[in-house]
Amino acid sequence: MATLFSQERNLNLPDSDIRYFPNFMGSEDADFYFKVLRDTVPWQQDDIKVFGKVYAQPRLTALYGNNGKAYSYSNITMEPHAFTKELLAIKQQIEAMTSVYFTTCLLNLYRDGKDSNGWHADDEKELGVNPVIASITLGQERFFHLKHKKDSKLKHKILLEHGSLLLMEGATQHHWLHQIPKTARPIGERINLTFRVID
Ligand SMILES: O=C(O)CCC(=O)C(=O)O
Ligand SMILES: [Fe+2]
User: What cofactor does this one take (predicted)?
Assistant: First the structure.
């Protein structure tokens, strides 16, 4: 039987386990969740410190969770809001597929092409040794870049589409960095949800 998941694409990059599901959500569900989250999430813009200098983060964020545990990265500590019913519904859809039970969701709102997310790995110690990161895209599609930490010949670009899921698992965060680069094209807003497990 052809299922939604039959369109699964394994990126097949060395030292990683990354799969892409372009139609994880139907487009009507994806439209609905984009609108609700856009309008109801208390989006915040934090300052980050890079080499001692303070910058406004080039996107808006919010943290949700079910165990009260904070998440810290780039000198920011975020305290979670309680999950809303929409976020719980998306979380359960991912859990039904992965059998991973997520505690936390970090949301990003990229307002336009000037908003971005610089090179990093999701390797904070509260995520555990081989974290599973489930990343949903709603709204504007954006390129997601990957580069190997040691082998500069290894790099990859993938367009993350409305309603898609990107699943990063295994040793991925040990060996690869990822980013959402800026673009000069006039583009709309994108919401990204990254579900994580924080012990
Ligand atoms: O927006 C994205 O697709 C990536 C977000 C990300 O890498 C993060 O929040 O750690
Ligand atoms: Fe990330």
Answer: Fe(2+)
Cβ < 5 A residues, ion ligand 2: 122
Whether pTM exceeds 0.80: yes
Q: Among the atoms of ligand 1, which is closest to the Cα of residue 194?
A: 9
The structural domains of the chain, with segments of one domain joined by +, span 15-186
What CATH class is the domain 15-186? mainly beta
Q: Which ligand is nearest to the CA of 110?
A: 1
* Residue nearest (by alpha carbon) to ligand 1 atom 8: 194
Question: Which residues does 136 contact at the CB level (< 8 Å), separation at least 6?
Answer: 24, 25, 90, 94, 163, 164, 165, 192, 193, 194, 195
Name the residue with tokens 């990957």: 146
